[in-house]
Amino acid sequence: MVEDEFSNPSVTEIQKCLADEDYSGAMGFYVLLRAVDRFTANYNKFPGQFDGGMDEDISRLKTTALSLLADLGCNGSVLPDDLINEMCRFGASELHVVAAFVGGIASQEVIKLVTKQFVPMLGTYIFNGIDHKSQLLTL
């Protein structure tokens, strides 16, 4: 399922989420997380990981994200600069509280699958620790 999302994402769903005020933040983080994967593959480090190159990393991540959006068929779409800056400021660190929360959600979904009780989430779960919001994107 994840492989399908990466190899053949729903362009119309991505464009719809980027344009929708309620989902644009979650979709922005989704695009940025995928852009960070590309950034890491290209530069062998996470954006903002090392002190001293923050401005360069912000510029590189923005370019990578715009390239990803173009590859996804979302030409002309832009991401807010504050999301890009926050992703670089974060520098691949993990906040224990956020990691514990997301780990709890993941373990709950595994229990649903193993016990075959209840309906597991379908889609990509995005948790925004800044605004304390979570959203499920079906791509």
Automatic annotation (TrEMBL):
Pathway membership, UniProt: Protein modification; protein neddylation
Ranges in a coiled coil: none
Gene3D superfamilies according to UniProt: NAD(P)-binding Rossmann-like Domain
Keyword annotations from UniProtKB, A to Z: Ubl conjugation pathway
An annotated Gene Ontology molecular function: ubiquitin-like modifier activating enzyme activity
Keyword Repeat recorded: no
Family in the record: Belongs to the ubiquitin-activating E1 family. ULA1 subfamily.
Protein name: NEDD8-activating enzyme E1 regulatory subunit AXR1-like
Organism of this sequence: Raphanus sativus
